[in-house]
Specification:
Number of helices: 3
Largest sheet: 4 strands, antiparallel
Helix content: 25-40%
Radius of gyration: 14 Å
Strand content: 15-25%
Strand order of the largest sheet: 1-2-3-4
Number of strands: 4
Length: 97
């Protein structure tokens, strides 16, 4: 197993990975955050809203049961399709994300 992991593209986030979770988990969470931002309940910076909107659009196009891996380094978060390695979304972490 270690050899196959070594053949993967190295990631600076590898020490901060969450277990793979289904698309529907992240989709519900970020649809809620987007809705709150659009309704004025929260007021994240515009680039955070744009990042969430992009993530929601990409997640909506995925199989709800497909797995997504969240990687973060304390500065930014990346949402990656576990099966393909496709980057579904990325944004800088702030207190308003």
């Amino acid at each position: 197993m270690a050899a196959s992991r070594a053949n993967c593209h190295p990631s600076p986030f590898s020490h901060h990975e969450m277990s793979d979770l289904p698309v529907h988990y992240f989709l519900k969470l970020y649809q809620g955050r987007l809705s709150m931002a659009e309704d004025g309940v929260t007021s994240p910076r515009p680039e955070i809203v744009a990042g969430i909107r992009h993530l929601v659009a990409n997640l909506s196009a995925q199989d709800p049961n497909a797995k997504v891996r969240l990687e973060h380094d304390g500065v930014r978060a990346r949402f990656i399709a576990a099966a393909t390695g496709e980057l579904l979304g990325e944004f800088h972490l702030t207190n308003d994300a």
